[in-house]
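Quick note —
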Amino acid sequence: MDTPPDKRTAFMAAYQGCHASFARYCSALAHGRMDAEDLMQDVLLSAFHHFERIEKPEELLHYLLRAARNRSISVWRVQRRTADVEERQLNRLQARGVSADTLVDVQLLYRALDKLPLDQREALLLFEVTGLPMAEIAVVQNCSEGAVKTRVSRARTALRELLSERPAVAGAARTRALLTLITLLP
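Predicted structure written out below.
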């Protein structure tokens, strides 16, 4: 069954502006649990098939972020963390020239992120990794902007405490790990 060119064109026009943010979010969300590219493809395929039902195509990013979160939760319930997926993601970072020390820092950062409540982790990733403004995160998370600010603040505080307990990621190493996470994700 062929897709009408106008649907493809409309979808691609709506998606073009949100690709980078969506890719970074999926990469951060999927780390160690699933392949980020698989998550992106699943969500994009579903979004494309349901594109006519999206009331505001200009808010496609919000739809994609919610769909990625929901899809990842479904997968996480069925699939445990596997060494194979984690190894592939580490290999991708190594292929980009990341040092062994930074890889360890990034792994420790992800482990600390995993300990955060889902709403705090998601708000922090959307703000720090994806670069969305608080107002847009509030729409994605279906809450007030004040609630998003609280979630991000609490997530930062919790991460600071979790990472300060580990001397290997204290100070400059913690900053390096977070910057690596932000800059190296697709």
